Amino acid sequence: MRKICFASNNPKKLEEIRKALEGKLEILSLEELGCREELEETGESLLENAFQKARYVHTNYGIDCFADDTGLEVDALQGAPGVYSGRFAGEPRSDERNVDLLLSKMQGKGNRLARFKTVIALIAGGEEFSFEGEVIGKIATSRTGSGGFGYDPVFVPEGYDRSFAELSLEEKNSISHRGKAVRKLREFLLRA
Fold first, then answer.
1. Fewer Cβ atoms within 10 Å of its own Cβ: the N or the C terminal residue of the chain?
2. Whether this model's pTM surpasses 0.85
3. Domain total of the chain
4. How does pLDDT run across 157-180, given as a tens digit for each residue?
């Protein structure tokens, strides 16, 4: 089976990706590759960040690789946290503090419209490709659910009355930003 690295050590992201590509590709994490360093995300966009991570792994470990970056864009916050979603509340990174800060900034806001965007950067056979996914929803007034990670407990996708954290992994993957981008990646890799 073809091996490819997903430039992440986030166990929840790895679970989502491995489930989506199950039986088709062997997905190696950074840790399994022997990469222990924290990969930088200093780009001005999700695409820049994703390629920054993928290029680092490809250059230093010589393996086909893909990396993602995801941002939550909230209309009432003029698109924030956006590219800074993972470090919205500063360092060290903390999903809990990021959600707390978001809920605090959203207090009293009538417009709760938001969108999640994922960009996947792939380096395969020495060439670079990218894939995007987006889902529209709204920011809840409080956390609900225990699944998922990041902003999942406060993001309610359009057409649902439950947060991402309340959906099963299969339900979430079928509609999520990352799920959409991964399906595009999967179709591309299986054709190649």
1. N
2. yes
3. 1
4. 999 999 999 999 889 989 999 989
